[in-house]
Design goal:
2 domains, Aspartate Aminotransferase, domain 1, Aspartate Aminotransferase, domain 2, four-stranded antiparallel beta sheet, 13 helices
């Protein structure tokens, strides 16, 4: 007997807003490489933006103390009083920015803070200016919140930084936000106070445009670079700037999922409405750990940044020694963003033509078991990103494999 037909229309139908949005390409590449490694391939995975260092012991102990003391219940919706106080002090100490607790929001990672802000402010068709290359989630978050990402390519010659004239040209009557990330994922480029001054002058001429400053890699900077953030460079913009940060990168706390932001009170209140109907409060235990991260000893951050700088120099020098590749030396974060245009058009030993940066990265994965991320997925080609948040021995082996793979390509 035949099974009854399913009722008409019973097939799953995703929301239209998901039509152009998929799972992060970085996660896809990392997942595929991880599966190959588990199957016995000698994969070197340089895709994930996650420090290889462990969370410092004093932070883990603070979480344990909180659990033993019974701090395992709900907290205030957008951050405990203790965490908000720690964030207020962090902004004052590190950035010269004065906020009250009512101007602080804490969420389950900086990604949630960004999402809350866009969901709370974007109406259909509102535009967000995003310099490219950009973290892959930016454009998708804007789109899922009903906005329109306006991507502005930034060249290696400009240090992958947005310039004032390019920002001016991108602004329209529908522009609601400018989204900056410094130091940048994926390029490692950082904006000096002078760079931000140039952008601030443009924003002052366009009072309808607000600014979101993603400062997640603030403490991972090199060569004496002086970190700057927009609201501190131009105090007149503080009332239309959301300054976003978190504990994930500097303190190796990616899995703890704590991000925070400081901004105008009406914006923070609107973001709380969004969070109240999604996650509610972040993990109480994670919040206790974040308090210790922000208020405890900071020396380990500088120690680990010195290790990252040594890795940066190893990778940049190694890539620049490979004919056909070119890599700018970044000011911060733990990524390199190398150009591979000199290898496009060549043939792999299999006879396949390397036409794009996506092809090149696929070739590296298949031929020499090295996983990196194409620049196409960050909005700028032909480049590829390496995360050097892994040990030097593995980085040296990866560079040797990449050099060997490039040498096998035929004109």
């Amino acid at each position: 007997m035949n099974a009854p037909l399913a009722p008409h229309g019973s097939a799953f139908r995703p929301a239209a807003r998901l039509g152009s949005i998929g799972v992060s390409e970085i996660l896809k590449i990392t997942a595929e490489a991880g599966a190959r490694k588990r199957a016995g391939r000698p994969m070197i995975i340089l895709g994930a933006g996650e420090p290889d260092f462990d969370t410092p012991d004093n932070i883990k102990e603070a979480a344990a103390r909180a659990m033993r003391a019974g701090a395992t219940k709900y907290t205030v919706l957008d951050g405990s009083p203790e965490l908000k106080a720690a964030v207020v002090e962090k902004f004052r100490r590190d950035n010269g920015l004065d906020f009250t607790a009512a101007e602080i929001t804490c969420g389950a990672g900086a990604k949630q803070v960004l999402y809350n802000a866009f969901m709370a402010t974007l109406d259909p068709g509102d535009e967000v200016v995003i310099p490219a290359p950009f973290w892959t989630s930016y454009a998708d978050i804007v789109a899922i919140c009903g906005g329109v990402p306006v991507v502005v390519p930034c060249t290696a010659q400009d240090g992958f930084r947005l310039r004032g004239d390019a920002l001016e040209a991108a602004i329209t009557p529908r522009t609601r936000w400018l989204l900056l990330n410094s130091p940048s994922n994926p390029s490692g480029a950082a904006y000096s106070a002078g760079d931000l001054r140039e952008l601030a002058d443009v924003l002052l001429r366009h009072p309808q445009v607000w600014a979101m400053s993603d400062d997640m890699y603030e403490h991972i900077i090199y060569d004496g670079f002086a970190f700057a953030t927009l609201a501190a460079v131009e105090p007149a913009l503080k009332e239309r700037t959301l300054t976003v940060n978190g504990v994930s990168k500097a303190y190796a706390m990616t899995g703890w999922r704590i991000g925070y932001g400081g901004g105008p009170r009406p914006l923070i209140a609107a973001m709380a409405v969004v969070q109240s109907q999604s996650t509610s409060c972040p993990s109480s235990v994670s919040q206790a750990a974040a308090v210790e991260a922000l208020t405890g000893p900071q020396g380990i951050v500088a120690e680990r940044t010195a290790a990252f700088q040594a890795r940066r120099d190893l990778v940049v020098d190694g890539l620049n020694a490979i004919p056909g590749l070119s890599c700018r030396r970044p000011e911060g974060a733990f990524y390199t963003f190398a150009e591979c245009s000199g290898l496009l058009g060549r043939l792999a030993p299999s006879g396949e033509r390397i036409a794009t940066d996506v092809d090149f990265c696929r070739y590296l994965m298949d031929a020499v078991d090295v996983a990196v991320v194409p620049g196409t997925f960050f909005g700028l080609a032909p480049f590829f990103r390496i995360s050097y948040a892994t040990g030097e021995a593995e980085l040296r082996e990866a560079l040797a494999r990449i050099a060997g793979a490039c040498a096998q390509l035929k004109a």
